[in-house]
Design a protein that fits this description.
By secondary structure, the chain is mostly helical. It folds into two domains: 38 residues, no CATH class; 47 residues. Helix content is 61%, strand content 0%.
Length: 108
């Protein structure tokens, strides 16, 4: 009664919830690890599996993760520079970290 109709047209991916996108992704063989993905990643993976071209425009959440990974690496390098008493490099790393943090705020 309250279920979906068999011949009903599917909603656009952007309008679906993450939960619905995970259900769609589970049905597609090429997608692995759907439960660990966020909404933009799920949409991207489903489009790729279906052969739909990505629209040019806003960048997804994957970029933010990459930037945060770079920030962590720079923090380690900065800590090493402080330990070896290299104030110049510590300052350079600090500025790079600040710049990357600004990028994550703009991308979010």
């Amino acid at each position: 009664m309250g279920g979906k109709k068999e011949g009903a047209k599917e909603k656009p991916l952007e309008k679906m919830t993450s939960k619905d996108l995970r259900e769609v992704a589970k049905e597609i063989d090429g997608i692995v690890g759907a439960h660990g993905m966020n909404k933009p990643e799920l949409i991207s993976a489903i489009r790729k599996a279906r052969g739909i071209e990505e629209p040019a425009g806003k960048k997804g959440g994957a970029d933010v993760r990459e930037i945060k990974k770079k920030i962590k690496e720079l923090k380690v390098k900065r800590a090493q520079a402080i330990e070896t008493d290299d104030q110049k490099m510590a300052g350079i790393y600090r500025k790079r970290i600040v710049r990357l943090k600004k990028k994550t705020r703009r991308a979010a």
